[in-house]
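Lecture 7 notes: from sequence to structure.
We start with the chain below.
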Amino acid sequence: MRRRVMVLVLLGLCGGWAITWAADPERGRTALTTRAFNVAIWPRSAYDEVWKQWGVSEKPAGYAAAFAERYGLHPAPYENDGLPMGLRPAKTVLGGRGITNDCMICHGGSILGQSYIGLGNSSLDIEALFEEMSGLGDRQRKVLFPFTNVRGTSEAAAMAIFLFSLRNADLSLRPQPLDLGLRADLCEDPPAWWLLKKKRTMYHDGGTPAHSVRSLMQFTLSPLTTLAQLKAMEPTFQDIQAFILSLEPPPYPYPIDETRAARGKLLFEQRCATCHGTYGPDGKYPNKIVELDEIGTDPTRALAITERAKTHYEATWFGAELGPDGQKMTYRLPRGYQAPPLDGIWATAPYFHNGSAPTLYHVLNSEARPTYFTRSYRTGAADYDPSRVGWKIEVLDGPADSSLPGIERRRVYDTTQPGQGNGGHTFGDGLTEQERRDLIEYLKKL
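Predicted structure tokens for the same chain:
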């Protein structure tokens, strides 16, 4: 039976937040999975013929699977006209039939071969997708900055800044982009949507109020989208936000050693709960933003948003959004990272804001983190490590050969590069191996 939520009230745990408005999560799911919010950026033929960019002589058998694996996309768990999750049928500017991308290109992932809306896509090579679907080729880049520097991450904040740089404060188009301090080495691993319900702030740096609806709409800001269209879409994005806040993580699917997990729970409460909260019926989440000097992880993303970018954003319709108290929302530049809730953490590898720790074991043992590594970027049971909890990797002796095509270079994670550092978060280094294993066993239960 369709359930209409006429007034939605969501309360975060331990100092979470509340919103009250007419919103419908089921209506939001329908909009998210059936509606294109941007015009088509490719003709429909681009999907059918992009294999000609792959260096093969004929169209591969099992083409849909080959397409999805090449770009790190996953089967849509909803009707999607034969396209993988993240792509969508859309109308062209002239009203013809084409394809665009949608939110699930980054926020639709897979674990153990099962697709989930709201699980970050840790396999995606969005750079290769856009280059090859547009017929550009690796050596013919025509974008102003990379979409990604390493597979499984994206330059999401950089893209948002770029889109705003094309607009005046009234969101009219500019003849020349504003200088907002754009950089493109942020290397962001998309977080799971189901974590948002516990947060007062969102994004890795915790700079944006979690109840902001307009912040979710930034990527509809293509040059062809008008302010009137944005305003018309806002009620739909209220529904989409309600759907996001209704999501729950999948449970860990393998057996758990309850004796070990019980020991791990005690360790967690002693060592981890101050930042990451407690779990269960009486669990509490502190919404803590940890300063860079304390966390020590790669600072690039935390320092990426300039005062110029913040000021320009706040001068637009996006920055004029009112919060539940009727007051204009406050956007901050915390210069740290929000310690996230850990619900469903078993499914959200790789770890840290930049995906530089492939497993929970690497999170808890900084000395074990490899400098260079790669993985299959597939998401089946054979690719998952249930012992260390995360993705199986191949440790490499050095970086990718610079002469390789970009789609191959981006398969190698190089922690010596800006934005890709794997230092910091050394809080597990003092654990014994048994304690580390016990703690990991408990984390499987969250």
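Points to note: The CA atoms of residues 337 and 428 lie 18 Å apart. The first strand starts at residue 8 and ends at 9.
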